[in-house]
Amino acid sequence: MKTLKQPLLAILILTATIGACTSSSNDGPAPVEVVRATDIQGNTANSPGYTFYDLEEGVIVTDTASAAWDIGFSSTTIIANSGNNGGIVMLNIAFDALDEAPTTGYVNDNNGWFTYTGPAPTGPQHAVLPNANTTLVIKTPSGKYAKVRMLSYYLGNPDTSTEAFANLQTRPAGRHFTFEYAVQTDGSALFE
């Protein structure tokens, strides 16, 4: 009787282990967390070039030759680390509605994320405003996908409908990027 219990126990443990492995592999893509980066300063007259950012770590990167950075910010240009197999693509779809990254079409940079108002007859003049329902998708050098929603080009993410913003004398400094993003860490293209 004693010898019968041990093999039966081993079979039950093996069955439970296989069942657990099977169910966890069919759970779908890893959940993505939306992160906000605030006031990432792009280039200025005193610091030409780009500011590079690592989306997975959420930090500014100073080693520009490495594969550690994913996205770079200049005046109004946003680039991806395409020299290390990354890239960027702009989609006319809301950030929250984007469930899957495209697998093709990635390029080095994107300038279509904003509207420049110029000498607008109404609203703020000479302002850089992020386009609504525009999502940038980044393919990172490590082969992961991230989606990015640009929120503001100005220091402090100000309300662009106020008189203080419309007045060029009281408008906060530009080239301070605030954006939200989500990285799919499991390597799939799904953001669900």
Low-confidence stretches: 1-5, 7-25
Please give the share of residues in helix.
Answer: 10-25%
Question: How many helical stretches?
Answer: 2
Largest sheet: 5 strands, antiparallel
End-to-end distance, in Å? 51 Å
The global form is: globular
Rg, alpha carbons: 23 Å
Order of helices and strands: HEEEEEEEEEEEHE
Give the percentage of residues in beta strands: 25-35%
Description:
There is one protein chain. This protein is an alpha+beta fold. 15% of the residues lie in helices and 31% in strands. The protein is built from two helices and twelve strands. The N and C termini lie far apart (51 Å). The N terminus is likely disordered.
Structure summary:
This protein is α+β, with helices and mostly antiparallel strands. It contains two helices and twelve strands, in the order αβββββββββββαβ. It is globular, with a radius of gyration of 23 Å.
Features:
five-stranded antiparallel beta sheet; alpha+beta; globular; 192 residues
Outline the fold blueprint.
Blueprint: H1 2-25, E1 34-41, E2 51-54, E3 59-61, E4 71-73, E5 78-80, E6 87-91, E7 109-110, E8 114-116, E9 128-130, E10 135-139, E11 145-154, H2 163-166, E12 174-184
